[in-house]
Amino acid sequence: MKLWRKYILRILPVKRIVDHSRRRQTPERLPQHLVYTILCGAAVVASLWQYAQPQLTFAVLGLIPVLALLAYVPYRVIPSWWRFMIQLAVVAAAAVWLMYRLTHGIPADKALSEVLAITSLIFLMAQNARDYGYLFAISMILLAYGALLPRTVYLWCLGVAFGSMLILLYSNRLQQLSANPRLPNPRRILRRNWHILALHLGLVAGCFALIFPLFPTDPSGSKGIFAVAFNTDKSSMLPANLQQWFQSEKVKQEQGGVRIIRNGTPDTLEAGGTPMKIKGKQPDSSSQDGSGSAPPGRDLVLRVKSPLKLYHLAQLYDEYDGTRWLASAELKRGRINVRSSERSASRMVSSRYTILKWLSPKLYAPYRPVSFERNNDTAPYSLLRTTFYNSELASNNYPNLPFSYLVSSEISTELENPLSERTRRRWRERPARAHYLKLPEKKISERLKKKVEELTRNAKNDYEKALILRDYLRNNFKYQQYSRPVPEGKETVDYFVFELKEGHCEYFAASLAVMARLAGLPSRTAAGFSPGDFNTLQNVFEVYEYHAHAWTQIFVPEYGWLTMDATPPGEIRSQTTPIGIGKLRDPFGDEWRVTPPELTEHTLQTLKDMYLKQVRAEETPSKAAEIIMQVAEVQEEIRKQIKETYRKVAPKSANRASDKKKTRGEAAWEYLKQLGSRSQHYLRIGQEFLRRYYPAVVLAGAALIAAYVLLRKQLRLRRLHRQEEEAKACFEKAAAALKAGEYRESVLFGYQAIRIELTLAGVPRRRNEELLDYARMLADFREGFDRRMTTVVLAFYEAEYGTGEISRRSAVLVQRNIRAMRRGLRVPKQP
Pfam families recorded for this chain (predicted)? Predict the structure, then answer.
């Protein structure tokens, strides 16, 4: 050991770790340390959340506040060499993690973003002031990478980052201009420039509102130039469901395409078209056993380009056994009796469906589909099984994704006079009307029959009956995704209506169908998807897994089969994207929530326009004009009848669910009216109180005014006393600094003291006024003050902004001048 120290250590230079604890008491922490920490956290979430390895993401987010707090711990508690060892450990962990991820087939961009997030931890301890520059640069890179990953959470992180960067811009402006990170900001800088700050905040908020809707929140599906993480991962798009994020990553590249396998179960198809494993086929019955409706998955299932906002039907159920709804043999063999003269082109609507994920062999369509067409011959329609309401794949070989088809649907709304006898007698399905009125008599309770009779007793027509029953369920029962199961031996609808009183969409659909049949209305339940989210940028409906839904179809003689959804409108997920500007460009509105989608004003107007367009193309001008007038009159009559019917029905249901979906303007107007009525009520109460207690009110008001005046005077005196104490302390510090040879501090304290004295004397410096102009202005206040103040200001400039040493002569001159000015302030000014 002695030989090692004597010979080897002299040959090999060794760099020792130096403890700076005695040189600096605390780390070089900037005042904006907390803002930098928030910016770093937002950048890490923006780049790693739901894409990086989940355990690593939570570990980095947990270490950010811990390491950031070390900047507030002095070196006597945790020496600098300890912190240096922590930084080395972080760097080593980042290197090991990078090698581990690359050797396990993780895309390079994903691994590098994770390593960059780990590396940001070493700059949070503020060992040096320049570390904040590195931290800011890393945050910008992570934010830029996060913009490539379509997620909603990124948009909120971007808002936090915008705010943090604006704060740093204001607080670091002088430091950046002077290249001195330790230069303090002027006092009350934010208070003096609040209007500029508010303007900038408004500009940032406006820019963010414009940028927010432009960012995608779901993957586009394109592969790009090279394979990267965000083109091969098929994880959940929203943070509400984190289970898929925590599953093991098994991404396998094959010749036939990219197949994503999680826990051994494929959730998409290979490019070669290998069939996926479906957990059970599409059932021929619906369940109300309490297991809940379809799981709220987040994957995009299909896109629909349609001129109307309608439900997407997959399966109908027409037979009720007291526990569940089933698809009977009559329904499966059912057909529509349609004569060529009855198939009016005015009611035919074409929709383009693009399936992005196979959930079942069903092809979705608005009711009632007439034909399915395909642009290519890869899936000949001889392989399809078609019924009068849907179509499905006949074999187990699923076509490649994305799978597109065009469906033409006949909408139930009649363009003829809805009150005519010809329309009322129409029944086009082969099963008789009585088939859709069958119920298991022994299982339907008497109290349920009495309840239906009580609700529909005063209804004037079938349409009004359907609305009353639908709104009764909407307004008196609670939606619950996972509800309690129906006990053994209980009839489902009776138990739901009188005991359970909450449940998922299948409970509402089944209850409305049964109650409608008790009221003499043909009905059946339907399963599929609600309309989905309307993307105004692409003019398509985007239907996700969480849009899976069940509803009811009720036959009304005036209109045919109508979509009646008893689920509370607020629980039917449908929004207009992008967020913000989407609502302004939405042509459909929310009328479909309170009116059957086939009867909304947009639907009727669209069908009318389509009809008129075809009439103009096929008929002579005179004949076309006659038909146009007839159609317009009938459409207007339908619209008026719908509004009148709903106006009569709505008051019968308390707390209408439709009120929950008022537009913001309508809700604001209702709130203002309520506020006005409340104000008038309180005003009358106040007037009565004044009449009864007038003397006491006057005395109390006078006492409050006197107390306010005295309080303001006391606060003003206290503020003046505090400023006098501050000026006295500054004078004493200036004198002490002069004796100690600290001439720069002496000048600065002296300048601050005389400024406070002048403010107390009633001659404060005006806002943004140059100091030399302020000094010249003092000539009108006291003789000679301008010359003395000019000397003090020049010395202040030299001490505050100069880089050289301050001479003793300058400090002494400042002391003499401020003493003379203090004496002059105590002598009253001669008139």
Answer: TgpA_N, Transglut_core
Residue 700's pLDDT band (cuts 50, 70, 90):
confident
**C-alpha span between 712 and 692 (Å, rounded):** 32
Region for residue 368 given its phi and psi (left: phi exceeds 0; alpha: psi -120 to 50; beta: otherwise): beta
- Helices 131-146 and 108-119 pack at an angle, to 10 degrees, of 150
CATH code of the domain in which 770 resides = 1.20.120.330
At 292, the pLDDT band (50, 70, 90 cuts) reads: very low
Range with the poorest average pLDDT among 123-127, 212-216, 392-396? 212-216
What value does the mean pLDDT take over residues 46-54? 84
Q: H/E element holding 302? A: strand 300-305
User: Which residues, in sequence order, are bridge partners of residue 535?
Assistant: 540, 577
Q: Are residues 743 and 635 in the same domain?
A: no
Output the CA torsion 692→698→703→706 (10° steps).
160
506 domain residue, yes or no: yes
For residue 754, CA distances in Å to 175, 788, 816 come to 27, 11, 12
Q: Which of 424, 425, 452, 457 is nearest to 439 (CA)?
A: 452
Q: Which residues pair with 353 in a beta bridge?
A: 304, 405
| Residues 397 and 334 reside in one and the same domain | yes
DSSP-derived 3-state class of residue 260? strand
- What distance in Å separates the CA atoms of residue 441 and residue 600, rounded to the nearest whole number? 36
Residues 640 and 787 reside in one and the same domain:
no
Six-digit token string for 397: 């070989």
Residue 382 lies in a domain: yes
Q: Which of 409, 372, 408 is nearest to 392 (CA)?
A: 372
Q: What is the DSSP letter of 151?
A: -
Domain of residue 340: give its range. 300-661
Both tokens of 653, joined, read 């249901």
Surface-to-core class of residue 154, CB atoms within 10 Å of its CB (0-12 exposed, 13-18 middle, 19+ buried): buried
| CB 598, CB 413: distance < 8 Å | yes
C-beta neighbour count of 692 within 10 angstroms: 9
In a domain, 235, yes or no: no
pLDDT at 353: 93
> Is residue 624 predicted with pLDDT exceeding 80?
no
Has residue 293 been placed in a domain? no
| Both structure tokens of 645 | 């019917």
> Total structural domains in the chain?
3
What pLDDT, on the 0 to 100 scale, is given for residue 417? 46
pTM of the predicted model, to two decimals? 0.51
Contact between 385 and 391 under an 8 Å Cβ cutoff? The reply is yes
Say whether both 649 and 789 belong to one domain: no
Q: Please indicate, yes or no, whether residues 582 and 449 belong to a single structural domain of this protein.
A: yes
Q: Are residues 199 and 323 in the same domain?
A: no
